[in-house]
Amino acid sequence: MSAxxxxxxxxxxxxALPVVNVSDLSSSDPARRxxxxxxxxxxxxxxxxxxxxxxxxxxxxxxxxxxxxxxxxAQPTEKKMAIEKSLSRCNRGYEVLGGQTLEAGAPxxxxxxxxxxxxxxxxxxxxxxxxxxxxxxxxxxxxxxxxPAMVAYFAALQxxxxxxxxxxxxxxxLDESFFTPYCRDPLTTLRLLHYPPQRADAEExxxxxxxxxxxxxxxxxxxxxxxxxxxxDEEGEFWIHADPIPGTFxxxxxxxxxxWTNRRYRxxxxxxxxxxxRERYSVPFFHVGNPDYEVRCIPTCLKEGDVxxxxxxxxxxxxxAMYRKTYx
Length: 328
Ligand SMILES: O=C(O)CCC(=O)C(=O)O
Ligand SMILES: [Fe+2]
What we know:
It comes from Breoghania corrubedonensis. The chain starts with 9 loop residues before the first strand and ends with a helix. It contains eight helices and 15 strands. The protein has a single domain, classed as Jelly Rolls. Helix content is 27%, strand content 20%. By secondary structure, the chain is α+β, with helices and mostly antiparallel strands.
């Protein structure tokens, strides 16, 4: 969505992103929930990227998700190709190294991935109607712990995402339930990613993930201890290294929130460069709402004299356009 940032921009290693403890979003005291909303507002008005602490997702589940993710990517190529994404009508399953180009004009991303979504049987009316990204998942047949771990993690993150959306509503001085209709029947995607180390002899401009903004509402990223995520600072024209902080997720706002808020909250440019010499694994969860929900400028986000910058669009229309753009 955003303009291309200068890739040769100066880089700094400052942890310039705030840590927001969201545990009080579960408080029965409205004032404590509102206080989290205020903290979220400051983070969202700045970069739209923050570390999320106090999220309540058990560390044991997180460790299992990483273990299963590594086991999946360690499988022989033919095993992974047996559940490759093109075999699915709803973009589920394995994505080959270089399968996506997130940054227009750059070389393909040096990452391999795996897509998981809401599990729907073939005879579900939404699947029979051919709705975008609706249908069954593809699962590896010889990793018995994989599916239960991913299903449990998906459910935990879906709940966290909806909780954060209530916090986001508070941050915008809206009713806490403002985004509830959007959160029903979600089109969320869980994505597993493996970034091999950057190559010394790589084509100019090759990255793990090219500079991009996220398509959906809210992204909740689990990253390992290797590092490599970079967030663009538009004013300073440099990349902030969003190094891992144990026990936190990195949360960022996607395009839909930028559209809702008329760019008051931004969908910020970010990228991955795995210069560590090690394998990197990450697990972004794209909390995306109801496909039929129409995202339009929130009236209170419109300052006097401003006009909406974006036409209303349904969640499904926007996602389809972004998939077309990055999977040429
Ligand atoms: O792997 C990461 O750290 C970020 C991945 C990402 O930005 C994405 O999949 O949209
Ligand atoms: Fe992203």
